[in-house]
Amino acid sequence: MVDNLLGLLEIDMVKNYITRVGGDLAVDVMKIMLEAGEPVTDEYIAGLLGVKVTVVRTVLNRLHFWGIVDYHREKDPDTGWYTYTWFIRKGRLKEALIEDIEEQRREVSQKLDELSSYMFFSCPEGHERVVFEVAVEYNFQCPICGKPLVEVNVEEEKEELRKRLSQIANIRSLLKDV
Ligand SMILES: [Zn+2]
User: Fold this and answer.
1) Among 46, 65, 88, where does a domain finish?
2) Per-residue pLDDT, 1
3) Domain total for the chain?
4) How far apart are the CA of 152 and the centre of ligand 1, in A?
5) Chain centroid to CA 170
6) Residue 83 and residue 120 in one domain
7) What's the gap in Å between 149 CA and the centre of ligand 1?
8) Tens digits of residue pLDDT in 63-115
9) CB–CB of 172/98 below 8 Å?
10) Does 171 lie in the same domain as 100?
11) 119 C-alpha vs ligand 1 centroid, how far in Å?
């Protein structure tokens, strides 16, 4: 289980999501928490990362806002101080990743549908990129610079999007085993 989650944290789309919700250090913070295999303090994480504790706290608070991490609070009977130990809520992390990936899947397949259903024309200077119907209205001339609009070859873009869809399918099957 832990290995799978660590593996997931190596995947760009997963990293992007974690970084989006938790900030730049969020992936590293989560790796340390997973590798520790037990709840850890913010000082422990900060020590391994070589950053200030406040920086780690900010990341943890952001992840906590999304429900991805949580903490235990214990009072030291001698000093009266509280110690917070943090852990990852794996079920919630999985749910959040599934939601995010599903959203990306929808976006990518919508884009792929568009590219497959329409012809696109663009200005060689990059001013405009429009569908055939609009290009007709423009008389196949860029409305900004007047240069002739040329048909765009979208095969490479489609190939990119197909790759992303297969990555998404991969991540989804990995998530099933987490
Ligand atoms: Zn132009």
Assistant:
1) 88
2) 46
3) 2
4) 14
5) 15
6) no
7) 8
8) 999 999 999 999 989 999 999 999 999 999 999 999 999 999 999 999 999 99
9) yes
10) yes
11) 18
Please indicate, yes or no, whether residues 125 and 47 belong to a single structural domain of this protein. Answer: no
Q: In terms of domains, do 100 and 167 share one?
A: yes
Q: Render pLDDT for 114-171 as a digit per residue (tens, 0 to 9).
A: 999 999 999 999 999 999 999 999 999 999 999 999 999 999 999 999 999 999 998 8
Q: Quote the mean pLDDT of the chain.
A: 93
Range of the domain at 155: 95-176
Same domain for 79 and 111: no
Q: Is the pTM above the cut of 0.70?
A: yes
- Residue 56: which CATH number? 1.10.10.10
Overall size of the chain counted in residues: 178
| C-alpha of residue 100 to centroid of ligand 1, in Å | 36
